[in-house]
Amino acid sequence: MSRLDDLIADAARRDPRALGRLSRIIDDDLEGKEEALRRLHSMGGDARVVGITGPPGAGKSTLVSNLIREGRAGGLSVAVLAVDPTSPFSGGAVLGDRVRMQEHATDPGVFIRSLATRGHMGGLSRSAQQLLTLLDAAGFDLILLETVGVGQEEVQVKDLAQTVIFVTVPGLGDGIQAMKAGVLEIAHIYLVNKADLPMAETAVKDLQTLVSFSPNEDGWKPPVLTSVATRGEGTGRIMEEMDRHFSHLKASGGIAEWRRSLALNSVTEAIRGVVDGSLQHLMTAGRKEFSEDIDRVGRREEDPLSVARRWLERLDLSRG
Amino acid sequence: MKKIRVLIAKPGLDGHDRGAKVVARALRDRGFEVVYTGLHQTPEQIAAAAVQEGVDAVGLSILSGSHLTLVPRVLEQLRERGGEDIPVFVGGIIPAEDIQTLKEAGVMEVFTPGSPTSRIADAIISTVAGE
Ligand SMILES: Nc1nc2c(ncn2[C@@H]2O[C@H](COP(=O)(O)OP(=O)(O)OP(=O)(O)O)[C@@H](O)[C@H]2O)c(=O)[nH]1
Ligand SMILES: [Mg+2]
Fold first, then answer.
1. Which segments of chain A does DSSP mark as H helices, in order?
2. What is the mean pLDDT of residues A278-292?
3. pTM of the complete model beyond 0.90
4. Are residues A172 and A277 in the same domain?
5. Any idea what the CATH number is for the domain that residue A241 is in?
6. Where residue A127 falls among pLDDT bands split at 50, 70, 90?
7. Is the CB of B1 less than 8 angstroms away from the CB of A92?
8. Collapsing DSSP states into helix, strand and coil, what is residue B8?
9. Distance between CA A43 and CA A23 in Å, rounded?
10. Helix (H, G, I), strand (E, B) or coil at A50
């Protein structure tokens, strides 16, 4: 058996070393990635995926840790992908979500992987969907996806998760921000965390008002819950609502819809990945010529789109 | 593109992680991805996290004086969990006579207070590149 065969076989029984190595191959575009993903894709399909999003510092990681505990108590195996931002200056990152989850580090039924955005927009990394394929193939019952602290970016988590929890805190005060960010269209459960702080009631009322305007086309009315994540308070109720939403999805055909939207997202991301890769390759190979073209556009001797088309004609997609 | 990915951990009971955080940020500024695990970590937690996170190296910050017990236990836990190939670096208040002992136990390099962070980054880069 090849090394990749071994890794995939070990990953299928949730061996942490194999999962750690494969997630590295996937996240870093290392050799074997395409072959691995081809095989992993055919293995998965049963995982429940729950996304946790919300502003920086709202308590997402603390909540994730509570949900791990609750899931484990219910006999579920749990995997976590936790995303933190990459510094645009150095390309490096400090990934700190795990600090709040370390009590579960040695639990063999739990796997936690920290991820950096690496310039990807939308609150996740480009690899997040592919890592989901890995964790799904490994057979985890529940996969939790923590996004970066989202401000007003478009939120990609809705394409990957069946259930999205939006976590906020008292005192942020403006629903307008939430509306602008479009979070009211994406979340299925709203949570006011840090309910031990003043103004929690107000935050709940504000959210309830906002939610009452939300489209809920599929007949799901998003609940507004409270929690004190640092004390574990409210976790049971959150888990109940997660289960209730999952049952709703199953009954309403929402699972099939989710599968399709995940497939659509995976294919478009894959196309983008290949095109990006070949483009990088082409531009590195033709660096000098490319730079001359840029100068010509700068001097207005040629327009950007014409230059782009000429380069696109030379794109060799087998190099992506 | 292969990033350098390291885990920075603070084993043991002392409650100061300023040094660990300074190193974490300095490594980030050199383009590393740094998984930070926080205070009071057991050797089991550190090794389990290193293996799951698929890191290229582990950095331990120890100020408590218990490095001679903690470090070998981290190395042993790494072996137990299939992470024996992950190099371990140690930073902190380590008496000169213990440095050799730690290296003999399998530690790649020891950095005492005042070591410039650039030296730490360079040591990790050359170890990881040389693998
Ligand atoms: N008072 C109070 N503090 C909390 C509560 N939940 C979390 N915190 C604190 O809020 C801070 C941030 O918590 P995290 O769980 O790291 O928040 P996060 O949303 O994951 O943060 P980012 O990933 O950086 O966006 C920590 O200091 C927590 O201890 C709560 O219910 N009440
Ligand atoms: Mg977090």
1. 3-12, 16-27, 33-43, 60-73, 128-137, 157-160, 175-181, 183-186, 200-212, 235-252, 254-285, 287-298, 304-313
2. 90
3. yes
4. no
5. 3.40.50.300
6. very high
7. no
8. strand
9. 16
10. strand
A114 and A139 both lie in a single domain: yes
Residue A10 lies in a domain: no
Six token digits for residue A66: 């509570």
Q: Are A240 and A272 contained in the same domain?
A: no
Longest dimension (CA), chain B: 40
What is the structure's pLDDT at A96? 96
The CATH code of the domain that includes B61 is: 3.40.50.280
pLDDT of residue A76: 97
From chain B, the residues in CB contact with A15 under 8 A are: 82
Q: How far apart are CA A23 and CA A4, in angstroms?
A: 12
Is residue A24 in a domain?
Answer: no
Q: What is the mean pLDDT of residues A210-227?
A: 86
| Atom of ligand 1 minimally distant from the CA of A228 | 31
Token digits for A32?
A: 């074997």
> Using an 8 Å Cβ cutoff, are B60 and B7 in contact?
no
CA A175/CA B112 separation, integer angstroms:
50
CA–CA min distance B68, chain A (Å)? 23
Q: Is residue A119 part of a domain?
A: yes
Q: ipTM for the complex? A: 0.96
The Cα B57–Cα A118 span in angstroms is 20
Residues of chain B with Cβ-Cβ distance to A105 below 8 Å are: 37, 44-45, 48-49, 52
Spatial CB neighbours of A29, under 8 Å, sequence gap ≥ 6: A277, B1
For chain B, the domain total comes to 1
How far apart (Å, rounded) are the C-alpha atoms in residues A202 and A170?
7
Q: Does B80 touch chain A (CB under 8 A)?
A: no
For residues A158 and A248, state if they share a domain: yes
Q: Do A167 and A233 belong together in one domain?
A: yes
Question: Which residue range(s) make up the domain with B21?
Answer: 5-129
Put simply, the answer to whether A113 touches B53 (Cβ < 8 Å) is yes
Least Cα distance to A22 among B79, B32, B77, B53 occurs for: B53
Give the confidence band of B40 by pLDDT, cuts at 50, 70, 90. Answer: very high
**Looking at beta carbons, which residues of chain B come within 8 Å of A94?**
24-25, 28, 34, 36
